[in-house]
């Protein structure tokens, strides 16, 4: 079994970390840099920083917030929200990002995935897929989950890998913020169809949920937000729990 990663997520709106349910009713959770520092101390393997309103508001990522968070951590930092060009990606790397995440822009301009991968390497390109169940499986949603597309999630996952994505961040909108557990069926459908790492997101409420999505879902990493922000558990506690079940994690 490959080493699994635990990744706290910082959903950021105008410089503050927020968290909602199914992408709605956002509440304040704190300062990005303070939370980033805390999670590194707890043993987080990576961090994801998502400017959740940048695309909807038609602006770029708030670079000062990225710089502030990047300055206090040494673990890899993935940043997304408002990335619409190679130059946008370059600005984020200059601000301290190790990877950039594309979502809406990848759907609207698939060639952008290839362009950024050629410029900075596939390992630096994450495609975020926001998925919602439909009568025929799961459909891709864009613009912070507010707009449905006709793209099938599994098909789109295989497509972005062909375009050059080195990793997929897969979020279940149906489970987001519910703390009822990840959509394991969705996760397995994507992990069994692609040959790049998949980060499972949406629904974490307790360590058992993370264990399930890493083992039954085949995810390479589990992303969580609310349960860490609110102190339900810690990264270190989750890792101890996983180790007790034989799941290999970094110290």
From the alpha carbons, calculate the radius of gyration and give it in angstroms. 16 Å
Look at the structure and give the mean pLDDT: 92
Low-confidence stretches: none
- The domain count comes to 1
| CATH-assigned fold name | TIM Barrel
Strand ordering within the main sheet: 1-4-5-6-7-10-11-12
| Overall geometric form | globular
The sequence of SSEs as H and E is EEEHEHEHEHHEEEHEHEHEHH
User: What is the name of the CATH superfamily?
Assistant: Aldolase class I
SS field, number of helical segments: 10
So, CATH architecture? Alpha-Beta Barrel
Class computed from helices, strands and strand pairing: alpha/beta
Properties at a glance:
globular, 8-stranded parallel beta barrel, TIM Barrel, 251 residues, alpha/beta
Description:
The protein is α/β, with parallel strands linked by helices. It has one domain: TIM Barrel (Alpha-Beta Barrel). The chain has ten helices and twelve strands. An eight-stranded parallel barrel has the order 1-4-5-6-7-10-11-12, surrounded by seven helices. Helix 1 packs parallel to helix 2 and helix 8 crosses helix 10. The radius of gyration is 16 Å and the shape is globular.
In short:
Helices cover 34% and strands 28% of the residues. By secondary structure, the protein is of the alpha/beta class.
């Amino acid at each position: 079994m490959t080493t699994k990663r635990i990744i706290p997520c910082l959903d950021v709106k105008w410089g503050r970390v927020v968290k909602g349910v199914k992408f709605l009713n956002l509440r304040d959770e704190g300062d990005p840099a303070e939370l980033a520092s805390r999670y590194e101390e707890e043993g987080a393997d990576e961090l994801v920083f998502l400017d959740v309103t940048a695309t909807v508001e038609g602006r770029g990522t708030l670079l000062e917030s990225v710089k502030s968070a990047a300055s206090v951590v040494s673990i890899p930092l993935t940043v997304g929200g408002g990335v619409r060009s190679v130059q946008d990606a370059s600005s984020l790397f200059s601000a301290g990002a190790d990877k950039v995440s594309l979502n809406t822009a990848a759907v609207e301009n698939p060639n952008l995935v290839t362009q950024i991968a050629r410029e900075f390497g596939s390992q630096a390109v994450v495609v975020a897929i926001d998925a919602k169940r439909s009568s025929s499986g799961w459909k891709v949603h864009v613009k912070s989950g507010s707009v449905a597309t006709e793209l099938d999630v599994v098909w789109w996952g295989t497509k972005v890998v062909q375009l050059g994505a080195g990793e997929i961040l897969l979020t279940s909108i149906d489970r987001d913020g519910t703390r009822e557990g990840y959509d394991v069926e969705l996760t397995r459908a994507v992990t069994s169809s692609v040959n790049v790492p998949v980060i499972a997101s949406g629904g974490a409420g307790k360590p058992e949920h993370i264990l399930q999505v890493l083992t039954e879902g085949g995810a390479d990493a589990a992303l969580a937000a609310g349960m860490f922000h609110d102190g339900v558990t810690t990264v270190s506690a989750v890792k101890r729990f996983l180790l007790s079940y034989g799941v290999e994690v970094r110290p």
